[in-house]
Specification:
globular
């Protein structure tokens, strides 16, 4: 609810930008750890480059997605298109942009995309945790009015406060933050299982989509299409498509890890 952390003259450090920076640094650390554990042929520099490219792709995808579905406003106010600090990032657009860039990077570095996606899944959802805290401090991605005791009145200078001045709102960014923390803890706990490549990332997509579907019932700023909430439509499609992929490929099946036989066992064989 305080978008600016530090302001020195014309220079302002915003919580939104700080959360992105923290998410990138933590993501590089976690992904580097998982890349080494999984034996993927990427150096720490490769992982850093991957993170920077994916974040850039995610930011562009999130903004393009949001602008396209709000074109009536942005066509009349084109100078607002690059003003991401005013809000206006769509998570599903960010996921699409990040996946496209990640796939391109893995092809370039000759690394299996599904294995790299699994290595990145915990870091991705943890990055979204930091992002939602940035939304909270920025006063965007806000909820509808509520009479619940945990409703929050946002400052009148924030996006939420301008839309609903003096009215308690669902802190939907905190709802999603809590859901994302739980998803991260689950993915981190099971990441060492010998599942088929792609299972962990697929599980991330499904769990996040289910959580986002739930939170959207309380959001005030969801993109709409033909009277329907876009996050509901996209989340349902992701759950259906990825669910079919998991079942068809049997991704949850743990692959057997060959064990070395002792000299005595080899002689008996």
């Amino acid at each position: 609810m305080y978008p600016v952390l530090v302001e020195i003259g014309p220079i302002a450090i915003r919580f939104y930008g700080l959360m992105y920076a923290i998410a990138i640094l933590v993501g590089i650390k976690l992904i580097s750890h998982e890349v080494k554990r999984k034996g993927l042929s990427l150096t720490d520099d490769n992982v850093m480059n991957l993170m920077l490219w994916v974040v850039l792709g995610g930011l562009l995808g999130a903004r393009i997605y949001y602008v396209v579905f709000n074109w009536s406003y942005y066509s009349a106010n084109p100078w607002e298109i690059p003003a991401i600090w005013h809000g206006g990032q769509a998570i599903h657009g960010g996921m699409i942009g990040g996946i496209i860039i990640g796939f391109w990077f893995c092809r370039k570095e000759k690394v299996p995309f599904t294995a790299m996606a699994d290595a990145s899944a915990p870091a991705i959802i943890l990055g979204q945790v930091f992002g939602r805290f940035g939304n909270f401090m920025n006063g965007d991605a806000h909820g509808l009015p509520t009479t619940m005791p945990w409703g929050i009145v946002f400052p009148k200078t924030s996006i939420a406060g301008r839309e609903f001045p003096g009215i308690p709102l669902h802190p939907t960014m905190l709802y999603e933050l809590a859901i994302n923390v739980l998803i991260f803890l689950l993915l981190w706990k099971i990441r060492k299982g010998t599942y088929k490549d792609g299972f962990l990332f697929s599980l991330y997509l499904i769990l996040y989509s289910v959580g986002r579907f739930f939170v959207s019932f309380f959001r005030a700023d969801d993109l709409m299409l033909a009277g329907l909430r876009m996050p509901h439509l996209i989340s349902a499609v992701i759950v259906l498509v990825v669910g079919v992929l998991i079942v068809k490929k049997r991704l949850w099946i743990q692959e057997s890890v060959p064990t070395k036989k002792s000299p005595r066992q080899r002689r008996r064989g």
